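In this supplementary section we document a worked example of the pipeline. Step one takes a protein sequence of length 513 as its only input; no multiple sequence alignment statistics are reported here. Step two produces a three-dimensional model, which step three serialises into structure tokens for compact storage. The input and output of this example are shown verbatim.
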Amino acid sequence: MDEPRNRTISRRAMLRAAFGGLSAAVLAACGQQTAAPAATTAPAEPTAAPAPTTAPAEPTAAPAATTAPAATTAPSPTPAAAAAAPTEAPLPQGAAGKLTVIHRTEYFEDAQTLFRNAVVKFAEDNGIQLDISTANPEAFGDFNAKMQAAVQAGNPPDVAYHTLSIPQLYFLDVLEDVTDVVEEAVAKYGPVVPVTAELNAVVDGRWYAVPFQSQTAATFARGDVLRAKGIDPLSLDTWDKRRDAALEVSDPANEMWGWGFTMNRSGDGHGFITDVIQAFGGRFVDETGERVTFNSPETVAAVTWLQETYMSDKYRPMLPPGIESWTDTSNNENFLAGKIAFTQNQFSVYAQSKRDGVPFFQDIVVLRKPKTNDGLVLESGANGWLTIFKGAQNIDAAKQLILYLLDPANFTPIVKVSSGLILPAYQNLWTDEVMAIDPNFVTLRDIIFNETAYTGQAYPAQPNAAVAAIDAQSILSQMMSNVTNGSMTPEQAVEDAHNKIVQIFEEFGLPQG
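The serialised model returned by step three reads:
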């Protein structure tokens, strides 16, 4: 792997970040909520599979002969089961001789079916008894606590596919070292992407999760609306250009507003404010991640720009009614209803537009984030993981299953039916076949291949718990509310927010004096 991908963090840094969440910060940096990967799953969760039956006495260190028992699977979720509120289910118990697999539900049932079918075929081809459960971690209640108890009891499941925080699972000491699996995958399929994968899953040079897929948020634009005004969507590479374009295409009389970004208290709102601040050169912390640097001329300039955007008569025609009180679903709803020309979200909004057959789906253009004032593009994708749990009794078979799932013959068909929600996590799996699926995949690849290890509000440092606490206290949305309600000037609001961030850091044992 090249030099940027050799960035790792020490065990001490991982422990410090565990409950602040490296992956949480990276995902929040993508313009989504901390728990945004769940947005790519089905809206309702199916109940977990039945508890496994008694396993054979002998462990299978590696796939056995085809004379072993035929693979059996847990029932696939039915629409009725998905509609019902799930009851807290027991965690499936691992056992020697039976490969136990848990995987999350997917937004598109076809993707979920292909994943399950691949696991079943692997088991059948290798004569391995199988217990496979289709359920989100939430179906088990406190998944992390139950997994920790299962590891301590010596009967954890073997493999899980999920988007949980690897730092948190590592902190709980429930993960097996899978460095050999990742190294084999890299040898076959090229470097792992995005570069932030290592910040999440590598501790002291060792991998504790196998990147299975990548995913990202993006900006979505109505190409038809923009082109009708002679505007090339791909030319809009700064916040100023996008704001001007949003104003030009706005037509309130016909319920078309250009601007679909809120500053309200929400994951989307905080992500948007962060993007603008960082585009102007503002930074929350220095390169150590321990010194607050929020109060700067650059941050004040960004807040002044936001004040102008939301308060001046000039830009009022591009603001949809009620945008000041939007929640995290409001921009999705307005975009899908054809009422806004720009918004930023997790890729589920694009997938939903395809699933629901919105009439302008073919005209949606996926854009990268606007450039910063110094020409950078601060964005990164995220990952879905395959993990093996510490003490699993079928580790060799689990490792072979993971490599089997990554084989393009099994993985690429999943990508084809996922509408951008499941993408390759290795550079060389972005084949011509994958790129031909959707013209917007060019932009997705550019985002996920971004060499800048963008870590959200912690950038240019690695995330830590203190940084992660900033949005938990809604400091940014309150700062902008102080400006828009006239109680503070931009300078005063930035200073006030800076002082609140300082207080957080000092409470985390990071003195700022």
